[in-house]
Design a protein that fits this description.
This is Leucine-responsive regulatory protein. GO terms for molecular function: sequence-specific DNA binding. One of its GO terms (cellular component) is cytosol. By secondary structure, the chain is an alpha+beta fold. It folds into 2 domains: about 5-45, Orthogonal Bundle (Arc Repressor Mutant, subunit A); about 65-140, Alpha-Beta Plaits (2-Layer Sandwich), CATH 3.30.70. Helices cover about 40% and strands about 20% of the residues. The chain has 5 helices and 4 strands. A hairpin with a 6-residue loop joins strand 2 (about 95-100) and strand 3. The two termini are about 15 Å apart.
């Protein structure tokens, strides 16, 4: 169920999504309010679980992670034991930036960030040695056209 947000909440969230490192004074000024009400709203939004972990976005390519693969996985095993083993393997792999279970012909899609194709092959070999997978298709992203963490609130 979607949370009920008023216009001030939306302005605060939009400002925080753009730059969570801003001071409370800066946020209050941008949203047209004073510091105390903004602080109280942020606290309530955290308590409600709307604001989660705050972090820093790093430039993957600047750090040498030049290859982004989207990995399509089909499995013939759907029992709980296989799934638990698969999810554990994914969570232990820092290369996996995102993992989604899908409806349709593909069971899972992974976003994997690595230094190069050789590093992807090492990831792939390690994954299939840990978990039995029916079919894996890897798609190399040639260009990132849009990437955002900002929700359209």
């Amino acid at each position: 169920m979607a949370a009920r947000l008023d216009e001030l909440d939306r302005k605060i969230l939009g400002t925080l999504q753009a730059d969570a490192a801003q001071s409370l004074d800066e946020i209050a000024k941008k949203v047209g309010s004073s510091k105390t009400p903004v602080w109280n709203r942020i606290r309530k939004l955290r308590e409600a679980g709307i604001i989660g972990q705050q972090t820093v976005l790093l430039d993957a390519e600047a750090l040498g992670f030049e290859a982004c693969f989207f990995v399509l996985i089909r499995t013939s095993a759907h029992e709980a034991g296989w799934q638990a083993k698969f999810l554990k393997a994914l969570k232990e792999r820092p290369e996996v930036m995102e993992a989604h279970r899908l409806a349709g012909d593909i069971d899972y899609i992974l976003k994997v960030r690595v230094r190069n194709a050789r590093a992807y092959d090492e990831f792939y070999q390690a994954l299939i040695s840990e978990v039995q997978i029916y079919n894996v298709t890897a798609l190399l992203s040639m260009e990132e056209i849009k990437s955002t963490t900002m929700l359209p609130i």
